[in-house]
Model the fold of this input.
Amino acid sequence: MSEDTSGARSLKTAAMVLRALRLLGDHPEGLSAAEIGERLGKSPATARYMVNTLCEAGFARRDDSGRCLLGTAPPWGAWVPAEEPAAPGDLGPGDPAPGAVLAEAVTELYRRTRQRAYLVRRTGTLVASVSDVRGHQGLARLPGLDTHVPPERAHGLAFTKVLLAASPTYREAVTAEPLAALTPDTVTCPVRLGAELDDVARQGWARDREEYVRGFGTLAAPIASPSGTWTVALGLSCSSRRLDGHADDLLTDVVDVAREAARQWGSGADHHGTACSCAECGPDEAGGVVAPRNRAVGTTRAGRGHRRRTGRGLSAPRR
Done:
């Protein structure tokens, strides 16, 4: 009988990962995958796989040049002393599990806009998790966004602005350190950011235009849980050019889908794809999230006509 060496291989792999993390800690300027492989005595392919895994798990991140840097906190969040209040969890007290509602909302937003759609959540940590993404092949991804948003980058992204606006604990943790200028358009003044987050909390949506990365913008709105907590953000990314030309239409889609998902979450709708068909909501035209009756799902923008949004839209000047 051959000896089972799987445990030894797992220990060797864990030791290699720990060596890679120590290596990144010794090089705060970052290392390329090839440099990591050379120092560890591994092939470039193995090193790239390990770097991708570390970034996806939130232990590391890539800068604009593609070099790998050690994350500033483990992916489960920075350690919080017992005497300090912990950040709120993903769900409020008594909130039911959303079932398939959130996944259906991401799919519906992508289907309406044909832009890359995201679901971003907080689970009581200082690291937001990108838990779901929809998009077709060839649709540009938001550069620099992996599966987690570390706190030092949360101020530059609409998804995390929504979550920051709802959590004083999260906001305080992010603004405790100097705000990094991710691009020339990033808001780095804590007072100005605080005023913007107050606006987000009041209006129920957020945006960034080239604040996270040049050439791209994001829009997001909260999917409020039945208890009213904002720990889930739904949004999209697109080119700055498209955001400039279609901001109000895209925002309408984001807000509509997020509100409908919140309604389904709180109404006890079947979370396995069967939505409410009452007189107010109408039949489920999409097989997922129900569209408002005044807007048929799947129509083109040309067929919808132009609607004027009530209140301040994206075309209005920012404070």
